[in-house]
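subagent[fold] <- orchestrator: predict structure for attached chain, return tokens only, no commentary.
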Amino acid sequence: MPDPGTGTEVTLSTRRLLIEPLRTGDAPELYAVLRDPRIYAFLPEDPPPSVDVLRSRFERWTRGPERPAREVWINWTVRTRAEGKAVGTLQATIFPTEARALIAYVLSPDLWGQGYAQEGVRALVDWLFSRQGIRHVEALVDRRNDRSLRLLHRLGFEHVGTEVKADHFKGGWSDEHRLSLSLARWNATSPSSG
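subagent[fold] -> orchestrator:
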């Protein structure tokens, strides 16, 4: 079982990325990335309207949930190793009593299609399985988000269900796929991260 007191200060690294604990001070730099409307095509939210709004969101994330014994929030800023430039975020919500985690990720559209998202998500999943005692990692993805679905399938995630009309936003309904990856499947199919 994962230890709810660990993980919030862990830095992960890959060949091209540094994945550092999210700080409220990252808001100005990440605002430049997160205001790109292309990120929100399949998300029920809009770009942050200001750096202050984003900073408040980060303060809430770093404070964590009201009941940390039931779930633990861990958030990272993703940076390129070469320039140290913030290019996105990674998130894990850990459910300690279930040995389960739900992940989310956002990457600058300027880097889409270059393998950066897969590299970052692979490092996150590997850390969850190897360091946090997680047995299942899950992700929720809008059924229209082909890019994200392909990324997760390449990492070994399998479709385990769909919630029809999960959310209504931007003038239409969203059906949401639930994808899952077990520790056993990860160990059997995945090369080491990086």
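orchestrator: received. Logging for downstream: The domain at 12-189 is CATH 3.40.630.30 (Aminopeptidase). The CA atoms of residues 88 and 106 lie 5 Å apart.
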